[in-house]
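Our example copied in:
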Amino acid sequence: MVSRTNKINKIMDRKNLKKIIVEVDKNPYWSGYGTIEIISDVDGYRSFKTHQKEPMKYLLNCKEYKSNEYELILK
């Protein structure tokens, strides 16, 4: 059984959610392409996903990445 405190802690952790997920395409027809997804849940849930030719180049110019506040996940 999960305690009430654990449930509250999980909710509080989600309120500080800030992630950037980069996934490189493995399809041979889309060589060099990938998706970037930016997720945050600080003052309300926000999600943005884009498909780019050079995902790392796009990421390095992204204001969320430059802020150093987001967790970076590479897939």
Remarks:
- The radius of gyration is 15 Å.
- Strands lie at 17-24, 34-41, 45-52, 71-74.
- The chain has one domain: 4-74.
- The chain has a mean pLDDT of 85.
